[in-house]
């Protein structure tokens, strides 16, 4: 599903009206009609509706809803949080069509509060206060109206987007309506699917209002990853396949106290379909990893019983790259100075598809310019917000304020793929393509989940998936497996190994 920002949607509307000759009034009428159809599905019969409208086009959509509901036999009260003279354009036309007698203007503080009983007694409240063009924080009478709508009790249908939600980021701009159902037009907006906006949106319904497909197709947007988007990307296996058909990946990982990270990355690569997996680890830890991994092969790297990788391991790794299809570096590696130097050299010398995770990312964060000298044709970084902040030289607050922007700008500048983890993980390609993941749950907030993801990604690269495709499949599959675990045992106490062991089941469910 394609999602766009509010700014992009405004440009889509402009092109539709100016270049394709579709009247704005027609778009507004179709928008209101779509909302009324959704209300009819939501409510078993006609009843009492309250429309709370603003002065802009979102309010104009609300006026259409009020008029059409009345024509369908509803009792409708419409409250406008503005003065009549503030309303212009297409919204004013639809206000006039509704008629002054059907509207109560509540432009001053406290005025809407006189009608709390009407809000509480409604069968549905229609939020048509503020649309996708909102940029600043909600204050004054609009904030008061949102508070009264949220406190009223009846189901709330939001027109286009819940009032107060930033359509580009999902951020709450001061306060926001908590909708049970949101009816949006032509395309979903980023604010509908990104947190915290997703929690205010309720169920989301996208309706066609007559915007030409060539306009929406040409508009820049992000791909929201759902099961239907992933299914066509997964390849079924030929009956004559053998282990050589699905690649050989090398995972460079592990240090004293962090053997679990290395094991989970290797075992997850096996569970994600890699034909062969080799796990390169400090030699002193190899016996431990051989006990923790059965299908994966181990490659002991001389470490002088130090428990971490050293500079001298470069030559051994170079030899190990022969015959491999993809490499992952980082799970549980440690940040010993020699290990850090080794990681940086690997980034500048490995010419295979490469996943850089965990301590691999932290090693590069001290010298991010090494990414500009990479040899890999496809370098995937998997930072959480803290790691992203260290890589980009900014604060975690800066990253979280604009997750999409942070991932896109870093990916484009450094020529890498960025998987910015978190609720609604962002995937950014160096050519500007963007995706937002729709799978996963809070049970994944536990140690080791990133190691599982690293194993999934390197396995997909080894199987020959195009890098952006591997990123999208990997991130969604990771969250989907976790969703299956949550459905079986709940979110609390979910372990990374639980997700690792559900990977084949998740893949099987998606590929059918």
Outline the structure in words.
This protein has 512 residues and is an alpha/beta fold. It has two domains: 2-220, YjeF N-terminal domain (Rossmann fold), CATH 3.40.50.10260; 247-378 and 440-511, Ribokinase (UDP-N-acetylmuramoyl-L-alanine:D-glutamate ligase, 3-Layer(aba) Sandwich), CATH 3.40.1190. It contains 21 helices and 19 strands. The chain has helices at 6-18, 24-42, 57-71, 89-98, 116-121, 140-152, 190-193, 197-201, 213-218, 227-230, 259-271, 286-292, 313-320, 337-349, 359-365, 385-392, 396-401, 403-414, 449-462, 467-489, 496-511; strands at 2-4, 48-53, 75-80, 103-105, 124-128, 156-159, 181-185, 188-189, 203-207, 222-225, 248-252, 276-282, 297-301, 326-329, 354-356, 379-381, 417-420, 426-428, 434-437. The chain has a twelve-stranded mixed β-sheet, sandwiched between helices. Helix 11 (259-271) crosses helix 19 (449-462) and helix 19 crosses helix 20 (467-489). The longest helix has 23 residues, at 467-489. 52% of the residues are buried. The model has no long low-confidence stretch (mean pLDDT 97). (6S)-NADPHX binds at residues 57-61, 131-137, 142, 160, 261, 332, 384, 451. Pfam families: Carb_kinase, YjeF_N. K(+) binds at residues 58, 127, 163.
Give the SSE map:
Elements: E1 2-4, H1 6-18, H2 24-42, E2 48-53, H3 57-71, E3 75-80, H4 89-98, E4 103-105, H5 116-121, E5 124-128, H6 140-152, E6 156-159, E7 181-185, E8 188-189, H7 190-193, H8 197-201, E9 203-207, H9 213-218, E10 222-225, H10 227-230, E11 248-252, H11 259-271, E12 276-282, H12 286-292, E13 297-301, H13 313-320, E14 326-329, H14 337-349, E15 354-356, H15 359-365, E16 379-381, H16 385-392, H17 396-401, H18 403-414, E17 417-420, E18 426-428, E19 434-437, H19 449-462, H20 467-489, H21 496-511
Parallel strand pairs: 1-8, 2-3, 2-5, 3-4, 5-6, 6-7, 7-9, 10-19, 11-12, 11-14, 12-13, 14-15, 15-16, 16-17
Antiparallel strand pairs: 1-10, 17-18, 18-19
Helix pairs in contact: 2-3, 3-4, 11-19, 11-21, 14-15, 15-16, 19-20, 19-21, 20-21
Subunit structure: Homotetramer.
InterPro entries: Carbohydrate_kinase_pred_CS, CARKD, Nnr, Ribokinase-like, YjeF_N_dom, YjeF_N_dom_sf
Keywords: ATP-binding, Isomerase, Lyase, Metal-binding, Multifunctional enzyme, NAD, NADP, Nucleotide-binding, Potassium
